[in-house]
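Deliverable D5.2: sample structural annotation.
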Amino acid sequence: MTTYFRLLPLCVMLFIPLFIQAQITDGKAESPSLEKTGMSGLTFRSIGPAITSGRVIDIEVNPADPREWYVASAHGSLWKTSNAGVTFSPIFDGQSSYAMGAVAIDPSNPHTVWAGTGENNAHSYVIPGDGVYKSEDGGSSWVNKGLKESQQIGDIIVHPTNSKVVWVAAYGPHRQSGGERGVFKTTDGGETWKNVLHPSEHTGCWELHIDPRNPDVLYTVAHQRQRYLTTIVTGGDESGIYKSTDGGETWNRLKGGLPQTMVGRIGMDISPVNPDILFAVVDAKENKGTYKSTNAGASWSKVSDYVTSYAFYCQKLVCDPMDVNRVYGLDIFNQVSIDGGVNWTRFGEDKKHVDNHALWIEPADPRHMLSGCDGGVYETFDRGQTWDFKANLPRGMLQSHCRQIQPVLSCLYRHTG
């Protein structure tokens, strides 16, 4: 009975047009105007969220034209702006996937864009994709380049000077073993792929990082996980950080102070100021926390107990482009450390949505940032003191709320069918 009372106002609103009858004047039907029905204050808008957007999983900004952004949505495809967020256009609607995991711009040719499908998180509902796509005209057209059995693409890196070389972190299926997992490399622009790292049928990779000084040096994060009907395996002995020094042909798991057993999801980043300095936030059964390396991963020291609130959902780090000691933790509420990960405080998020997954920082002015979260895209020019919400990005979270909408749909069917 309580459920019906909760649904009654919504059903009444849905059926208002059905109960507005034509007025009869001198025996003739006359359609009422908005003024006559007391609805003159209403205006039409897009069907979807009115005051918020949906989960944004990745943001890429064209380094040659900072007005051009690509916004990857976990459940709402890929969007592009060419005017710094004044307007957004959907550019992936004609493809067979609408859940995104990653987007990457070719540093040598910004007209070439790579998109990885399938949300790269490990919570209860994630929508699979069908591999990686490539566009050579700024997102106007796309070609599927394979890795369809990966289902979730974690990350994509394009070689800084050779457009034919691309690395992909394949997370693998969310609810079953097998599939395409690990790190894949192409040397012919995506025509063929080599599985250069395959931890196991239970473990895939979800992050990739490249040393800005040497493109042969790469890091990837492996995560052992599988979601079942009533529970989730969100860690194991196969989770860890791997490093390659030969362009991704061979990989070695990093040890030297990092937890090695019963490890959950790890987030890491390379400091652009000094790429020998690495930070990692490690979820583990024992000794979880924030770790730092000052020798390119050869050894690590635990600097604090900080891990994100939901490691299976957030768990990312972003290093400041100018201050080697400033690191951001993407969390339910964003966190920041100004002393190399030793102490963490909440980053400014006044009037901003929570659950953060992406953070772009302008290299020349770190006060300017773009944040991607469960509420869409926000922009700040004062390092988080104030935020501008991009309300013109009509993204929603329909999939996550289907169980709430189902009673309304049933009600409609009973009264109209």
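Annotation notes: The chain has a mean pLDDT of 88. The longest strand covers residues 203-210.
The annotation will be released with the project's public dataset once the embargo ends.
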